[in-house]
Amino acid sequence: MSPASLIPVADTLTAPNGWFQFFLMLTFPLHLFAMNAMLGAGLVAFISHLYPGRAYHELSHQLAKALPFLVAFTVNLGVAPLLFVNVIYGHLLYSSTVLMGLYWLAVIPILIVAYYLTYIYDFSFRKLGNLAMFVLLVVLALLLTVGFIFSNNMSMMIAPASWSRWFATPGGTLLNLADPTLMPRYLHIITGSLAVGGLFTALYSTTLLKSTPEVSEVGRKLGMQLFTWLTLLQLGVGTWFLLSLPKATMLRFMGGSPIATALLVIGVLLAVATLLTGFKQLVLPTVWLTLPLVYVMSFMRDVVRGNFLAPYFDPTTVPVQVQWSPLIFFLMTLALGIGLVAWMLVRLKNTKKAC
Amino acid sequence: MNYPIWFVPAFGGGLLIALVAIVHVFVSHFAVGGGLYLVLAERKAIKEKSQAIMDFVKKHTKFFMLLTMVFGGLTGVAIWFVISLIHPAATSLLIHTFVFGWAAEWVFFLVEIVALFVYFYAFGKMDDRTHQTIGWIYFGAAWMSLFLINGIIDFMLTPGSWISTSNFWSGFFNPTFWPSLFFRSFMSFMLAGCYGFLTATFLKDEEARHRMIRYSGVWALVSLILSVPAGWWYISVLPDKARSLVGGASPTITRAATVGAFSLAALAGLVMVLILLHPRARTRTLTVVVMVAAMGYMGAFEWTREAARRPYVINEVMYSNGILKSEVERINREGFLKNARWVQQKEITEANQLEAGRELFLHQCFACHTVGGFNNDIIRRTKNMSYGAMRKYLTTIHEKRYFMPPFVGNETELKALAAYLTAGLHKKPLADDGGAAGDRGTVLYEENCAACHSAESIKPKMKGWELAKIRAALDKLPALNPAMPEYNAPAPDKDAVAGYLFSLNNPGADSSAKDQGATLYEENCAACHSLDQVKPKMAGWPKKKIRSALDKLSALNPAMPDYSGTAVEKDFLADYLAKHTGGAQ
């Protein structure tokens, strides 16, 4: 059975494909930022438990307060890119989702438990004592599991050659473990996430925790250390991921395609630059370099996806029947939403100042 | 047919959707109504300068945040996960059609999160006016989420003119949009009142506790009363087929509607008692009872809505099994397996017939029927039917039971599915002649009744029934039970089925039952007319004419007495005469 014969027909789009690509590329990195901050804050809080001293303890406590927010925003900012992935690649995504249905559904209870545990960690931080550290460990393990499930689905949806396994195992228990790119892909994103998360912690410590200098200082130090060492490690993991890719895809990054190669070069240069500022513990310059870096990384990810799918699916061939008014309605809503959020945050800031 | 199926034999996806959806519905409606409740309760506290009430509102906000943001938010995502797993084709169609509606809903979701965080964490630290405004922003965003999702959900029940225009707005503002929006809004206020009840019982300050319980009670009661006309409006704009389903043509819906009505009554009564009469009845247990009743009301409504669009997942557009109505004709012509992805048997041979049948079952029936599970178990439903009966049943399945989708595919494929459902599941013989298994009554019973009633289950129900009563009942099945379809068959077929049913409780009477007409003739006519005498007189009479003559014998010939038999007996007699005088059917 040829893999292509299994691929469902894609439904008609209501706006030119480029719009969905644009929204996907715009919102996915936002989800990454929130997710990275969530994982990084969790890891730094956990490491702080291992150090003696009040400052470290207080850092854990302050990060505990941030965790529920970060989970909420990770989920919310994940909805938008997942929606646009549904539009562009839905026929592929739903197929791989069915293949791993049981694991995919497990994401929800895992997240609910992890989310509530972050609240318990936050609201009962003092009561929990040493137990807090283990609550946090469970949260981290659960969140990393969710990431692994996502990596499986996102890599299986672009590998229709693995789909015929469904005929023998239709119970939703298939993962993409035989795929040589799975592990390096997962480790690549987790290493990157924890690194950026470390940077977030440093930023959080040097801004919102400024009022308690010793806490701010340990937060900055730990966060920046995490960022630099993991980014250094990432050079190795990233290379492993690159080498695990099918040769044709890999060669596109090695000069085969000008865009892919340019992305890789810019990515590596930005990463090296963040290492330089990182080792010097310069928080803000590192942040400014990392923001575009995450965007470049997610563009590269899109190039990989396009290459994997090239034999099977060309998004430009999907029929389009344009209706502009819903798109305009969404853009207006988005503008209104951003305005309201900005207004509320300004009000909150003013309140804090007044206090 | 376009997508793979998540196949866990004993586990039905439909049930999973219902579970997740109903849980989410309670929390998400609370998330909307609760927003308004919080702002207004806060305003009450400010106005009455009551610190106790203010503390209560703050505490309630925390409960509200933990419940709606975590559980509500994630179960919302869960619905999306579940439907894309169980109904990928429908999910894809909805997402592609309403992507920007959903995208806008995501924006409001974001605003909700920020507003609720600010509202909770700045409680008591912000000036009242700004804090109230934040509360209003939360409620506005939450209600807009309801507004947007409401359009998409109701589209599935009543797609309206979208079917011909494919226009976003005509699908969104579909015929049930407004009544449903009102109904859901009142539901959400009612639930807010119910949750308010519950949290208010935790208030330590006695005076404030009574005040807040009464306040919540008024909320719940007024919203409940207002929801009734909105619900009625909703039902009145349903398309005819959906309305007749809600009216009782589908057994599950009837049950759900009953549960809904009962809990509605129970709820209304309890709330009244709580608020108006007994301060001492303001206990936590009773508030929980009220809450459960409210959820029953709402759950029944959701279940009914889901069931009312059967056999479609998107009414008149896509059947529950993901097959587009517009494609049925083409697929019937070309064959299902040839058009389907995710099947291995593209051509049916004698050797692969059962395997092909299994694949057809998977893609056309498994969406609603488990194999050996709790929900619509296909094994139990098919155990009374022979291969021949199943084939006949499948050809008219949608006409006989509207809420089942039609079989889609060619004749060979239909045979393969019938083979799987009988030979495959029950090891029954694949006798090609449906009639070979027994006499006519038995065969007709299998073809028309056995899908729902096994002989063992129907036998005790008809204990003591006369043959005539059984025969008469076959003429008015829907009157016996609204869930039963009309049995449209020629009178002799009905006679045969009646004979078979009668024989279940009267084993010896089988042969006499079949000759009921002969007996009646002997008892009432033969004294004066031998059959041979009558024959030439009635030559060429159609049965209808014979039957109507039996109603006015004295008019035909004043010497003849009128026949005093029942209408059914007259039918039997007319049948008998028509058969023996050569009259046309």
UniProtKB/TrEMBL annotation, chain B:
Keywords, ordered alphabetically: Cell membrane, Electron transport, Heme, Iron, Membrane, Metal-binding, Transmembrane, Transmembrane helix, Transport
Record InterPro entries: Cyt-d_ubiquinol_oxidase_su_1, Cyt_c-like_dom, Cyt_c-like_dom_sf, Cytochrome_c_Oxidase_Subunit, Multihaem_cyt_sf
Transmembrane segments: 6-39, 63-86, 106-124, 136-157, 177-203, 215-235, 255-277, 284-303
UniProt-listed GO biological process terms: aerobic electron transport chain
Topology versus the membrane: Multi-pass membrane protein
GO CC annotations, alphabetized: cytochrome complex; plasma membrane
Pfam families: Cyt_bd_oxida_I (PF01654), Cytochrome_CBB3 (PF13442)
Main location: membrane
Compartments where found: Cell membrane
Domain Cytochrome c residue range list: 436-561
Coiled coil, from the record: none
Superkingdom classification of source: Bacteria
GO MF entry, a single one: metal ion binding
Family named by the database record: Belongs to the cytochrome ubiquinol oxidase subunit 1 family.
PANTHER family tied to this protein: CBB3-TYPE CYTOCHROME C OXIDASE SUBUNIT FIXP, CYTOCHROME BC1 COMPLEX CYTOCHROME C SUBUNIT
UniProt-recorded name of the protein: Cytochrome bd-type quinol oxidase subunit 1-like protein
Organism the protein comes from: Trichlorobacter lovleyi (strain ATCC BAA-1151 / DSM 17278 / SZ) (Geobacter lovleyi)
